[in-house]
Write a structure and sequence with these properties.
Elements: H1 10-26, E1 40-44, H2 47-57, E2 61-65, H3 80-88, E3 91-94, H4 100-108, E4 113-116, E5 125-126, E6 129-131, E7 147-148, H5 156-173, H6 178-203, E8 210-213, H7 219-224, E9 228-231, H8 243-256, E10 260-263, H9 270-279, E11 282-285, H10 301-316
Parallel strand pairs: 1-2, 1-3, 3-4, 8-9, 8-10, 10-11
Antiparallel strand pairs: 5-7, 6-9
Helix pairs in contact: 1-3, 2-5, 5-6, 6-10
Length: 319
């Protein structure tokens, strides 16, 4: 798990519980954005799930995102207003263990349809190094990262599996529009299959198969396309990599023809630039698509994934 994730404080939990009875009435006008819209009201915990809900639901759904654009989703804490929004919604779509504050709020809510994206596909344990080859020259060990990796949406195949599960849940919860949900899901899955093929073809002949990131978010993508992700030791954007880890990365970069250290759009590039400078490498963006902002290289999931593919091809040396 990402070490930047913060557990909701005991005090905050108590405050939410204490407000639980009053917020539904006191905040009823504020929470109208999430409920009683005349549509199937869905609360999504962060952007990849908001995107699924909108693509599958079409005109029949009203989607509210708990994570604001530019906000790091792992750091999200739930406000009393957002707790009320959950209570007013018809369904909540979240990814268990990614945002502990959301998990707590969902568990306490009385929403009839609770959709856990993590239950709709398979999750794996990923550590500091993930992917297609075992880097014997990497001596780093980071037990803190050795948990179930939540970043399933970066693998188009797993994301499609989640989409199918979400579509089925929408059909069951809102049967009046089931036919449209089924049609929209099929169209989305087809686009994801095409994206998977573009990644497969685009990364099959690269000169290098290893890439370095500051955030261990791309393990599923790496495994899917025969690559290896090396994550810098210490995922907190304010922390510095250890001298030993930088030395390991320099050794690995030379051995495997690595040219680039990738950083993401929602956090500082300080760590990436530190390692790149020490190892004589370039830096570039590889977006984990946890949110779309003005800094994103695209306007939605698909366009940002296309930008990610081009960045990987450039860094790995596509033939």
């Amino acid at each position: 798990m990402n070490v930047r994730r913060r557990l909701i404080s005991t005090a905050a939990t108590a405050a939410v519980a204490a407000l639980g009875l009053t917020t539904l009435s006191a905040c009823s006008s504020e929470s109208a954005a999430a409920g009683n819209t005349g549509k199937f009201d869905v609360v999504a915990s962060f952007y990849p799930l908001e995107f699924l809900a909108e693509q599958i639901g079409g005109n029949h759904v009203h989607v509210t995102n708990l994570t604001q654009p530019g906000q790091e989703p792992h750091d999200l804490e739930i406000s009393a207003r957002q707790t009320a929004q959950l209570q007013e919604s018809d369904a909540v779509l979240y990814l268990k263990n990614l945002q502990p504050a959301v998990d707590d709020a969902v568990a306490q809510s009385e929403v009839k349809t609770k959709i856990d994206a993590a239950s709709l596909t398979s999750l794996e344990k990923h550590g500091n190094e993930v992917g297609g080859h075992a880097a014997s020259h990497d001596s780093s060990k980071n037990e803190e990262l050795a948990g179930l990796d939540p970043h399933i949406w970066l693998d188009p195949v797993r994301y499609a599996q989640v989409a199918e599960g979400v579509g089925a849940a929408f059909e069951k919860a809102d049967p009046a529009h089931a036919a449209d949900y089924k049609k929209n899901t099929a169209a989305l899955v087809k686009r994801l299959e095409e994206l998977n093929n573009r990644f497969k073809d685009g990364l099959s002949g690269t000169r290098s198969k290893v890439f370095i990131t500051t955030h261990a978010a791309f393990g599923y993508l790496a495994e899917r396309y025969g690559l290896t992700e090396e994550a810098i030791n210490g995922l907190d954007p304010e922390s510095e990599p250890s001298a030993a880890r930088v030395k390991d990365l320099e050794k690995m970069a030379k051995a495997d023809g690595v040219t680039t250290v990738f950083y993401e759009t929602l956090v500082s590039d300080k760590t990436a630039k530190t390692v790149a400078a020490d190892a004589g490498l370039k830096t570039d963006v590889l977006d984990p698509i946890e949110g779309i902002t003005s800094k994103s290289r695209g306007k939605d999931y698909f366009s940002v994934q296309e930008a990610n593919l081009k960045a990987l091809q450039t860094a790995l040396g596509s033939k």
